[in-house]
Amino acid sequence: MGYDVAAIRAQFPTLERKIYGNKPLIFLDSAASAQKPRAVTAAMTDFMDTTYSNVHRGIHALSQEATDAFEAVRGKVAGFMNADEREVVFTKNTTEGINLVAQSWGRKNLSPGDEILVTELEHHANIVPWQLIAEATGAKVRAVAVLDDGALDMDDFHAKLGPSTKMVAVAYVSNVLGTVLPVEDIIKAAHAQGALVLLDASQAVTHRRVDVKALDVDFLVWTGHKLYGPTGIGVLFGKYDLLDAMPPFLGGGDMIDTVSFQGTTFREPPYRFEAGTPAIVETIGLGAAIDWVETVGIEAIAAHEADLLDYAMDQLAAANDVTVFGTTPTKVSVLAFLLGDHHAHDVGTILDRTGVALRVGQHCAEPLHTRLGVHSTVRASFAAYNSRADVDGLLDGLSVCRELLG
Amino acid sequence: MDAETRTLFESRLLSLAKARAREGRLPEATHTGAVKNPFCGDEIAVDVKLSAQGAVVDLGYEAKACSLCVASAELLSDWIDQVYSQAQSQEGGSPAPLQPEDLHALAQAIDDVLKGGNAPAPDGFEALVSVAPFRARHKCVTLPFDAAIKALEDKQT
Ligand SMILES: Cc1ncc(COP(=O)(O)O)c(C=O)c1O
What global pTM score does this model have? Predict the structure, then answer.
């Protein structure tokens, strides 16, 4: 049985929507945030209707059931990326996960002269938190160059990696170029220099199997809403010993051992980093999203998306007036481009009116756009529910752009 | 394609943006302001020249921006030229020179047009009515005005 995209689409009510009167929605903005299958919304509603209660603090039946359901998701997340449960910290999103590591690990471990190595292709979420902690500690942020085809310049990486490097924080997959970084090589080289590695896996978990043990990565962060789950829930993986040596990030309820005015002691990871009432219902939704992805199969999704990407790349190459950014063989289905010399915004406005939803601008990656020498780009991204008809819709939309923009 | 989109892209805005006839910095600027739209990264710098009496006499700009932003800057720069030259050419009496407040009022009027108010577009800015249905693009049009106002709020350069 092949990949039944029609059956998959049928599980996403949003995809049935019409916009601007009666235009079918062609949703090519999943790299920003994915649509949700019914299974996710149903799990959340069902939980609220039957089991809802605060977690980790109740003597009563509902609280125990809610806690069990909540902690079961931790197990599911751990299984999904081959981690131990106690290495899974629930966060709000990727951004919070990176800030947590930067502040908590960074404050304790960085001093003047130390270096944090990022890359030119990072999302701002993997730049700014490091700049903030560098400012506070006297450490320095350096960026590894990107080559013209969107690959990381590994010569520059090796040149910049050195004894001063304490942290290498890089994207697993670029949210603009779709490039999959050679993270195995990066991790080995960083470890050989005694540096830790944080991977921003926001765009990786959606397109490939991620195995933290096989990678031997120190920290890995991602966000639930790109993986067909709800907003407000993200994941930080950290090796247990590293997490255990880190001070808390936020203080409050749930994360303490004993509290007194003589001094407070903190719980063990992951709870030390989960202050206050967590996003309980969203966590349940994330669990359902992982179940959904695993039922379809992440490998099957990846293969389907790769087919769509090939199809789209061939069509765009045939068009002659389209410049694609990111052309490495490892590219996943994130496709940034420009049509002629037209501004991305003008193209995006017209595409929107033809029913094609995608993102234009700098995609929270201004340094990358500076490096590419372009002001902004149009980004189409393909997910589990997209079809070749969606790609055709994009191409038809581009024809309208040509007609109107001249 | 729907009528709104056609109207927008067939309006004179696109040809204004292609020609960029008035783009350029003012060597004699007295005030200058640069703004950026963080949503898309578009940037524009606006130079304003005030006379010794404090009237706006010239405006120049330089933009890394979309067609709507550039077209809006073109219209603004045209408008200042026309108001100023009209003021110059008035016979006798004292012409009413363009005051910084007038620019604020103009920006407000453009904002109202975009928000779909009933007031007619100010003279020379009629084409901007076609942007009103495109809410995500309003900022593109107001960016040059933001830069001009920022310039006027700035100290003399
Ligand atoms: C590579 C990458 N990093 C970080 C983020 C930020 O994710 P969030 O906004 O959920 O924190 C995104 C998504 O926008 C992303 O694509």
Answer: 0.93
